[in-house]
Amino acid sequence: DIVLTQSPGTLSLSPGERATVSCRASQSVSRSYLAWYQQKPGQAPRLLIYGASSRATGIPDRFSGSGSGTDFTLTINRLEPEDFAVYYCQQYGSSPPTYTFGQGTKLEIK
Amino acid sequence: QVQLVQSGAEVKKPGASVKVSCKASGYTFSNHGISWVRQAPGQGLEWMGWISGYNGDTNYAQKLQGRVIMTTDTSTSTAYMELRSLRSDDTAVYYCARVSGSLFGPWGQGTLVTVSS
Fold first, then answer.
1. Closest CA to A35 of A59, A19, A51
2. Over the stretch B78-107, which tens digit does the pLDDT of each residue have?
3. A106 in reach of chain B (CB within 8 A)
4. Probe site for chain A from B62, B103, B109, B111 (most A CB atoms < 10 A)
5. In this model, does residue A94 exceed pLDDT 90?
6. Cis bond leading into A15, ω under 30°?
7. Shortest distance, CA A92 to any CA of chain B (angstroms)
8. CA–CA distance, B28 with B5 (Å, rounded to integer)
9. Among the listed ranges A9-23, A41-55, A91-105, which one has the minimum average pLDDT value?
10. Is the pLDDT of residue A3 over 90?
11. B37, B59, B102: residue with CB nearest A33
12. Which long-range contacts (CB under 8 A, 24 or more apart) does A53-59 make?
């Protein structure tokens, strides 16, 4: 099974700064099947990025994704107060459908 | 709009079973699968398994094989997740999510299952 390892575990930044979250896979993942989710306390996760770099509907352009193979990155430019949350990467494997989440990265206000 | 509504919170004793429901609306149930994801207190997301809304095919996370059963009732557009032989470390919020290929969304509101003697 593919294991996704996110770093750092916690990221302390101030509004207006840039956040960079890494997701490393134990084996190569298709770009098409790498996604990022945001979760705020008491809420279900929300899709941010799919296909490694495509923003989901309604997601501001300060959120961007990149990467390929085993290394993927979520970047958030000009942090807004509402961006402080936990971020998860997720990959999909087909036949049969299998999904894996990274352990999460908490983005907290410094 | 597409919506998934889950059943309410449960408190169970160790060794018991729990069955959580997830009623879908706003889309053709058979066109999408449903995945179940759980989150222990203060922990990350753990994928539990997937069920086809079309034919009921399933795939469970290896860790839960033998303890979890996922089913659907297409007549009511409802998915169910039953977890047996509950342990204290099964205490978590359980989410259902509509699956579109590789992606999850929308999600249900979550169901807290507490396992305590």
1. A51
2. 999 999 999 999 999 999 999 998 899 899
3. no
4. B103
5. no
6. no
7. 5
8. 15
9. A91-105
10. yes
11. B102
12. A56/B105
